[in-house]
């Protein structure tokens, strides 16, 4: 089998975040994890080409990168496209998922990737792709790549693919017709009885889990509290310096308002594709109410307004990704000794 492998700048051994702007490049043969992957194919496949791109470059120019990679794979006459493994690296997972789906749909050849279930790419692309569960870290890379090789070989040879637990890929949320011994009603009763008895059982449909969040203690005296604004409406300074994506954002930014009494439209823009931004563009205070909070600050209604607000885009964002962004924002809130947060949305 002829295989094309996609890697980001880190796993290609080029560099870390400082090289995330690396443009697309091609190397002949296997690179980095690809060398181990090729060994695990045990002579059944050869990585003829490795495609490498920096994480920032890939997500900021996704359409351009996808089109170029599809043509590279076409020219290589590949039988299989593999991306990753990506683990929890969000931008890497988003790029790998987009590339794999494009190759699979446009060229009609199998594509496979590997990432953690918490990677935002997993939620976006699990229905369209087989995504091997990589776990959170590269500690078990050999095992992950062994599953990738095994599943990739089955896909190329058009063999039957087993259930997620058998093959090691993430649940895709797809329903398959299957002849079974017991009806759904009987299986349901069996599960209920097992639960009542405290015996192990496995649900046939896994629902989205929302962990319980305890209500925080009230602010005792708001007139002495430090208040911060956080928005998922995508308000960013002109030029979008943090390159926050308008859809399925993997990043957030902190922006100073220390010298402002209110926000002017000419200084800000919206990175969010889910609402008509014209009214916010005219007056950004409609989304981040700096003018009203400054007035409350002067009246002594609040103790102080924090000198930054935090912003991201909440459009079409996988739950796993929003949880990560929320944790990161919460850590900053704690570091800055903020007492209360006002969350504004669209």
Using brief descriptors, characterize the structure shown.
single chain; four-stranded mixed beta sheet; 2 domains; 346 residues; Rossmann fold
Overview of this protein structure:
There is one protein chain. The longest helix has 18 residues, at 90-107. It contains eleven helices and twelve strands. It has helices at residues 33-40, 55-60, 62-76, 90-107, 120-125, 141-156, 164-167, 184-197, 278-282, 290-299, 319-335, and strands spanning 2-8, 25-28, 46-53, 80-83, 111-115, 130-133, 226-231, 235-237, 253-256, 268-270, 304-311, 340-344. With 346 residues, it is α/β, with parallel strands linked by helices. The radius of gyration is 24 Å and the shape is globular. It has two domains: 2-167, Rossmann fold, CATH 3.40.50; 222-344, no CATH class. The termini are far apart. Helix 3 (62-76) packs across helix 4.
Rough outline: globular
The main β sheet shows up as: 6 strands, mixed
What is the CATH level 1 assignment of the largest domain? Alpha Beta
Structural class: alpha/beta
What is the rounded Rg?
24 Å
N- and C-termini, Cα separation: 49 Å
Number of helices: 11
Secondary structure: helix percent: 25-40%
**What is the average per-residue confidence, as pLDDT, rounded to a whole number?**
92
Main-sheet strand order equals 2-3-1-4-5-6
CATH topology of the largest domain: Rossmann fold
CATH architecture of the largest domain: 3-Layer(aba) Sandwich
Beta-strand portion reads 15-25%
Order of H and E elements: EEHEHHEHEHEHHHEEEEHHEHE
Poorly predicted ranges: none
CATH superfamily of the largest domain: Response regulator
Total DSSP E strands: 12
């Amino acid at each position: 089998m002829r295989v094309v492998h996609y890697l980001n700048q880190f796993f290609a051994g080029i560099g870390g975040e400082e090289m995330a702007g690396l443009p697309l490049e091609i190397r002949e043969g296997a690179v980095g994890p690809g060398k181990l992957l090729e060994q695990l194919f045990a002579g059944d496949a050869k990585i003829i080409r490795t495609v490498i791109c920096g994480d920032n470059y890939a997500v900021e120019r996704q359409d351009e990168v996808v089109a170029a990679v599809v043509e590279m794979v076409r020219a290589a006459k590949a039988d299989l496209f593999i991306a990753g493994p990506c683990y929890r690296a969000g931008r890497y997972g988003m790029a790998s998922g987009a590339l794999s789906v494009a190759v699979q749909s446009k060229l009609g050849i199998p594509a496979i990737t590997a990432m953690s279930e918490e990677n935002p790419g997993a939620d976006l692309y699990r229905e369209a792709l087989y995504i091997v569960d990589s776990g959170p870290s590269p500690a078990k890379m050999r095992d992950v790549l062994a599953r990738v090789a095994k599943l990739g070989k089955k896909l190329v040879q058009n063999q039957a693919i087993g259930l997620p637990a058998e093959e090691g890929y993430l649940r895709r949320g797809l329903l398959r017709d299957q002849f079974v011994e017991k009806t759904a009603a009987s299986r349901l009763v069996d599960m209920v009885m097992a639960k009542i008895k405290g015996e192990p059982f496995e649900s046939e449909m896994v629902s989205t889990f929302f962990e319980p969040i305890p209500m925080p203690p009230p602010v005792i005296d708001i007139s002495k509290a430090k208040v911060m604004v956080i928005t998922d409406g995508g308000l960013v300074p002109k030029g979008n310096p943090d390159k926050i994506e308008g859809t399925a954002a993997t990043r957030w930014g902190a922006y100073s308002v220390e010298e402002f009494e209110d926000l002017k439209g000419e200084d800000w823009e919206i990175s969010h594709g889910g609402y008509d931004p014209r009214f916010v563009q005219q007056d950004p205070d409609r989304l981040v109410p700096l003018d009203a909070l400054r007035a409350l600050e002067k009246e002594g209604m609040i103790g102080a307004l924090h000198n930054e607000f935090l912003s991201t885009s909440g459009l079409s964002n996988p739950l796993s990704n929003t949880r990560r962004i929320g944790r990161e924002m919460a850590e900053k809130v704690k570091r800055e000794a903020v007492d209360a947060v006002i969350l504004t949305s669209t």
